[in-house]
Design goal:
Elements (H helix, E strand, L loop, with lengths): L5 E4 L5 H10 L2 H8 L7 H8 L12 E6 L2 E10 L3 H31 L10 E9 L8 H15 L4 E7 L3 H9 L3 E6 L13 E6 L1
Helix pairs in contact: 1-3, 2-4
Length: 207
């Protein structure tokens, strides 16, 4: 039996519920940046930033998928024109939550990740942070979330949509291909620390 998802804008009250879902979209990358040799781990960081409006990790940038009023999925989108403002917000967030001694290492690792998960161009609509609660996976909800996000990108006037997917996630790769995305390159990763090893990622495009 198919269950309808209801989509809405995220709010600060969603932060603790959706932070693990955002994290599940790329745990290795998040851990590599935000959990390595720190007391505040990646989910803690996301829980705090999702209570604030600004930046890539702010609640205003996320959409929540609900079933009967319960959040079961999340996704975000942004264009390359927002990259600079997002970077400035991220710097402030990292300094605030990790302090001046830990922050430089986190920022450095974040820049390293951008060689694998590359920011979009100004005219590209990037779909990211797609996560579904484990109790609601393999029921078509990921497909519905992606269909909604693609529709939103088209409504916003973007002709080119992009996303990145781990080479170790063939199920997601297959889903995105079925929705019209094509892999245009594989970004090789050599990033590894004692906390996480970041896999190769495919950049996919929908035109």
């Amino acid at each position: 039996m198919s269950v309808n998802l209801v989509f809405r804008a995220a709010t600060p009250n969603d932060a603790k519920v959706i932070a693990p879902l955002v994290y599940s979209s790329g745990p290795a990358a998040f851990d590599y940046i935000f959990s390595h040799k720190t007391k505040l781990n990646a989910i803690d960081f996301l829980s705090r930033t999702l209570q604030k409006p600004g930046g890539e990790f702010g609640y205003k940038n996320h959409r929540v998928a609900e079933i009967n009023g319960t959040p079961v999925g999340v996704a975000t989108s942004f264009s390359g024109s927002e990259s600079l403002s997002f970077m400035l917000v991220a710097i402030r967030q990292i300094l605030r939550y990790y302090g001046p001694f830990r922050a430089p290492g986190i920022m450095r690792r974040g820049l390293q990740i951008e060689s694998i998960i590359v920011p979009p161009e100004k005219d590209e609509y990037c779909i990211a942070h797609v996560g579904v609660h484990h109790d609601h996976r393999r029921k078509g909800n990921g497909r519905k979330i992606m269909q909604y996000m693609v529709s939103e990108g088209k409504k916003a006037g973007f002709s080119t949509l992009v996303l990145d997917v781990s080479a170790e996630n063939p199920a997601a790769l297959s889903l995105y291909e079925s929705l019209g995305f094509k892999a245009i390159r594989q970004n090789k990763s050599t990033l590894s620390n004692s906390t996480a090893t970041v896999p190769d990622h495919f950049r996919m495009i929908h035109e």
